[in-house]
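Why this split exists: single-chain examples teach little about how molecules sit against one another. For that reason, every record in the complexes split bundles all components of an assembly together and asks for one structure covering all of them. Below is a record exactly as it appears in the raw files.
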Amino acid sequence: MSLFLASFGFGLVTSAVLAIAAVGFTMQFAVTDVLNLAYGAVMIASAFVAYAVNQAGVNVWIGMLAAAAAGAVGSVLLNQGIYTPFQRRGSAPITMVIVSLGMTLIIEFGLQAIVGGTNVSYTMGQGPTVKAGGLILTAVQFVIIGLAVVVMGGVHVLLRYTKLGKAMRATAANRSLARNCGIRTDRIVTTTWALTGALCGIAGTVLAINDGSFGATSADLFLVVILAAVFLGGPGQAYGAMVGAVVIGLATEISAAYITPSYKDVIAFAVLLIMMAVRPGGLLGVTA
Amino acid sequence: MLTTRRIRRPERPGLGAPGPKPGGARRAIALAAAVLAAAGLAACSSSSSSSSSPSSGTSSSSGAALVVADLAPFSGPDAALGPTYLVSCDGATAAINSAGGVLGHKLSCKGVDTRGDPADAVPATRQMFATTSNLALVIGCTSDEAASVVPIMNANKMVSFCMTGQSEFDSVHFPYFFRLVPPDLEESYAMVAIAQQLGYHKIALAFGNDIGSQTFIAPAISSISKAGLSLVANETLNLQASTFRTEADKIVAAHPDVIFTEALGATDATFLSEVKQLNGGKMIPVIGTSADISPDWYKSVAAAIGASTLATSFHADNLVTETSGPAYSPFQAAIMSEQGKVGSTGDFSTYLTAPGAVHLYDGINLAALAMVEAKSTVPSVYAPYILTIGDGTSGAEVVYSYAQGIAALKAGKAIRYEGPGGPTSFDSFHDSTGIFQIDAYSATGAVNVTGNISADQLRAVS
């Protein structure tokens, strides 16, 4: 029981980090129509911005705001400078995927050339450790879980109750119809890149805090797990990504406790494959 | 006027809103491709070929620079290894060039990125041979890639000084392969001997899932048993993963006295910080391998668990290296001349005890002196002279640097080179193993020698 509770706690933290990243990723995909595989690279680049701020003596949580800003600006520039020109030329979705994969390598290795191969850590304490039964979590991990809840709540409010959120949903559902209804879809797309880029920056910082140590390529495997959560929930489904993140986060950590940690990423994809076989559109997606 | 052309896209529900049926075949294909591409990206784990310098070759044209290739990981989890070796290469070749070069040639260093993966290392090695016309020596070749690249280098008759401890090189003869570091199994025995010496009984293993780290496990398990100690946990750390809480929790729950580890990249830093966290903020003592004696490892782990914690809870085995004397002074000058030329790596003086820096410096000097002795820069010609100069002949004058060596050779004397890694004694497989010492970090990151392991101690657990 104590092993289960411990792994359940670890799963909650993993789910929290994953949820922030996956929701940003899936919103970006739904509205902009770009499956941006450079998302993980932007996450880590943003985490390094927070690191630079942190090394200047500033609290890492404030550094996270700088990372969010960097993620927003970086994502908008990525779209305006790279993706939009390709889309204007009518590039096929598979071409866009390859372009984003190329951008991943460019960003990662460009970053590695600047920061080097050494891994770094934020200067911060973990706070007191709370033990309850087998559950062991630090204060910082509680903050991460709380942050994820706030972000999920914020996304829900944005999508359901704001004009911008409704415009984003309309653009995601049918861009030409949304434009015909008077929605300035280009502006919505740019705003979406900024908002999801900010989420990307927050996710990168939280990932780096959670990992304790990170380098230029630390998000490589995590990107695959993000994709698993997104696909599990249904691509383009913000709420699906939240559910997918919880399922993947808990499944990987709990299975690691009972099988072997070496298989935890295998478990994530086994869950995904089973789900896609049973329900191809994902948990909250529309079935064929 | 520029008009925006939009891709016609199928209608679909977005962001959780109800709506019509999603996607089409095109999207499905793109998504599937994306997953495959991302999975491939993760598997490749980031890599780029970092090369710095000009071409050269296996037979040198007069006066052209000879190239020493640093064939090692410059990206991926073991990305810190290549740059460490390059510091040694740049320092050693600069000292050689200052002493007049080799037979009228200057030396330069070139980084060749293996990404720490045999699948990438093989084409990188082939490309190195295809594009480097004055290649005279290869250094690096870690356990990540040695098994796949050494046969290629041997087929190309290229001398290599490798940083691999893999046991297959203990008994297979490669005429152009040389090794100044101990087999991994001896390092495993040394770790067990350190545990015995420090009074630890219950041992947990936590090694990375890379080839280089996995080779320690089997000999460590057998040595632990032979020493009468108990193995309480054995966890493999996936170097691509971002957290290791479950592994750390299992190890903490096993209540070991000490953890043996080698997991490079961010892994040890993350893993050890999680061990500390799950152990109520108290660190379990750690014994690392000689690969953990490096500025990059220190910097990342000290930042993750605290420099003072690392200083009080960490030991590592390392080959005995000079810390003073006639061989140390020129070595120190050569390495420290590189300070400020590489990225921020914490305490630069850690390079003075890093096995890669010490033994590759010696390897480059041995090769350069062998070229002079052989009067040829062709590897197949000068290779036998490495043994002559390393082991020495009767009456040979001991020299401690390239400059001393070349002066003695010009005076017509036979020489034996003895560098900061101590005297060499090559066996028939071109392995030269020294004796071990116990290293620890100070709170400022300097490396201190805290003890030695005698040959008897090592034999008792092997």
